[in-house]
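REVIEWER CHECKLIST
Item 1: Sequence provided? yes
Item 2: Single chain? yes
Item 3: Sequence as submitted:
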Amino acid sequence: MKAFGFLSFGHYGDVAGSVTRTAGDMLHQSIELAEGADEIGVNGAYVRVHHWARQAASPMPLLSAMAARTRRIEVGTGVIDMRYENPFQFAEEAAALDWIADGRIALGVSRGSPETALRGYETFGFHDAEDPERGGVLAREKFDLFLEVIDGARVAPGDPRMVGAGRYLAIEPQSPTLRDHIWWGAGSRATAEETGRKGLNLMSSTLLTEATGQPFHELQREQIDLFRAAYRDAGHTGSPRVSVSRSVFPLVSDQDRAYFGLRSEENHDQIGVIDGLRSTFGKTYAAEPDVLISQLQQDEAVMAADTLMLTIPNQLGPEYNLHVLQAFAEHVAPALGWKPNTEGPVQGDPV
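Item 4: Structure as written out by the authors:
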């Protein structure tokens, strides 16, 4: 692990105990949290994207505001549901964001997670006749087109009266660094290998759609190794980034123990069913800092990735979440190999 960031699900609701009652609260608090995290030295500020729910849904305005109000921190998503996106509009917005942020972005994209709406992407106007139940084919076809157009493909026939006969046009703006900042959110080993073959970065999911009896961190480490091998075997020569997500809470105050002390007794993975697939979910880490250091050093996936995303309880507000990030930065992260954002952009490992 070289870097860590926070991953916010962007929950909001008028419920007891929440200081994030409205969508406006969530958006303004997310920006405030990114600003505070930037000053602490945290490397990344990432948001989940969920439609049809009281959660963060339209990331580009939020990430643009985060980028404009910070200096060093990377802003990104984990993940954008490609079933809902127009590839051309998404390409324009992503390129603009890359320019605004001076390259400080990490856009995680995927087929998306289960949602409250029944095939909600169809209501957005996107349909997939081949795979109507899961939308996987639709997401991948649209993502491949997105990659083509951010690479400069000329796909729109130009008006000959304006650009000359026979000319085709590319989307604008174009950002030469954008492709380096695209991640695919993979929930299986096969998807991780495909991500490597495409030369993208890997955002390993908070769950794996496999349940072999192995601990989650071992399954995820195998996924990372397969990704890097596929990247290398495809002839790519860069240093791809890899991130994993964990719920980690250093218990350094009575308030921490009141909120998360019982979680320290739930020291095990969970097995469940997602989209009909038996899946493995990672455990929550909540302990005194010295115990956390030992536990995370034994987490093979955390130590193999360059970036750890800490899932945060955003409805507890920026002040408490900055306390969690500060405690992790001060008491835990240095022992894991962390370098603060003052030391420059995060680099992946050469394959």
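Item 5: Key structural point noted by reviewer: Residues 23-40 form the longest helix (18 residues).
Item 6: Recommendation: ____
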